[in-house]
Amino acid sequence: MASGGDGNDVARAQSITSDRFCAQDADVTFESCDHVLFRVHRKNLEITSEGFSPPSGTITSNDSVQLSERAEILDLLFQYTYPQRPPDLTLIRFEVFADLAEAAEKYQMFGAMEICRMAMKAAYNDHSFEVLLYSTRHGYPELMTLAQGRALELSTADAFRLFPPTCYIAYTRYQAQWTEIVKFASNRIQATPPCEYHTNYVLGFYKRLIANPALLLDLDTLLAGSSSGCLNRACSAPTMREAMEKKIRNMKSFGSFL
């Protein structure tokens, strides 16, 4: 946060004041990146947030604190600083909610953080990748476990770009477990005496796995195509599935590597 000064007079003159946060007795003013002023009460910030409250005496009611968030996000966020019913997050687009969740974490607004965490959990089925990134950035092991399967869809380069350093290391260790599962299945297939069904089964297995590594989470699809007429029981989908599931059950979660 950076305090506004004389150099911001022109921008301040072009600013408008929030319809919701415009109290005459407000003693702190924040300005969004799209030049909307939010007049709020210092005492409320001190009670509800660790990262928002400026030191006493450093800012007068005539000064404004410049924030990087847009007005749409701050209008939601500041509602958590007052004793009122919080905004209904089911009524806003996920992209807006995700930005709100990041702002709550940034400014350590604890009430908003907890509500956003629960809402992220509810959004897991539709936005599992976003939930994975959110949980790794902010340290929510339960959400990591829910969404960890999406890590299989990331390339190493994308993971390096998207994850913080400690989470990237966790990603490589988590990913290595799945690599071992693939090696296990590959060795088992190669050690099986060939039969008339074997070649097509092997080719199908590798083709599907290369196209989508996340199929390791859907063994029915990954192992589809093996024939019940195969003379080698080890080549059949039920046997392979049972062996792979046993390995998968013993794997460590993504969050355990952090």
Automatic annotation (TrEMBL):
InterPro entries given in the database record: SKP1/BTB/POZ_sf
Q: What is this protein called?
A: BTB domain-containing protein
